[in-house]
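Worked example 2:
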Amino acid sequence: MPIQITCQRCGIGFSARPSSTAKFCSRQCFIIPWQIRFWKYVEKSDGCWNWTGNKRDGYGQLSVGLTHDNSPVDAHRLSWILNFGEIPEGLEVCHHCDNHSCVRPDHLFLGTRKQNAEDCVSKMRQAYGVKNGLAKLDDDAVREIRALYRKGFRNWAKIAPIFGVSNSAVGYAARGQTWKHVA
């Protein structure tokens, strides 16, 4: 004989077998909506609101069923959707605070990929100089190259092998087109 159980989510009564451990009346009530699950992973403070859940490359991630393959969505994008609505086509959700795990709405803004990249460069957050894993020169080598340039030496083919780089890499560094941070 079935027993009456009250759904823990919606409060509606439903029938179940006495041996059942059912707590919810339906699959819809069993699955917690992402809008509720989202806040479970947010650690609020006076500054950034940091994502404490799953991360990829420092960005919070949550599977919410918004993509065709149910892949995780970046948490800062979900924060934008929750607080401001849909993200227009061609725009990204960017961070004023430069904290990838921040989901605080007033720390977020919309911009194009180009604007996001320009913001990154203007704040010197991109990998430059020896921070770039592919760099073959270092700050001292660039200073040496520039000293030669100031003395009138322009034969890149002769000094490039000394530094283990191409002729053009020496030329760009000498003229300050690259390694702009080196004085």
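The mean pLDDT is 90. Residues 148 and 154 are 8 Å apart (CA to CA).
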